[in-house]
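Quick review question:
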């Protein structure tokens, strides 16, 4: 039973790419979008800065 619950949980968990797209979609203008894109790129290059899953506001 636990295995079934774990599988359902995994299916309902959003993919990192979907989280990134949602984060970018919240941009208020082109400058904010570019800033967010740079932030995601920086996180990919430097995972110790927070990884892909944390989307804080600056």
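Suggested answer, residue by residue:
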């Amino acid at each position: 039973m636990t295995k079934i619950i774990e599988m359902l949980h995994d299916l309902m968990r959003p993919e990192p790419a979907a989280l990134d797209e949602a984060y970018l979609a919240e941009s208020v203008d082109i400058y904010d979008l570019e800033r967010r894109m740079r932030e995601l790129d920086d996180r990919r290059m430097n995972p110790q800065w927070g990884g892909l899953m944390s989307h804080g506001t600056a």
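Why it works: Residues 15-58 form one domain. The radius of gyration is 15 Å.
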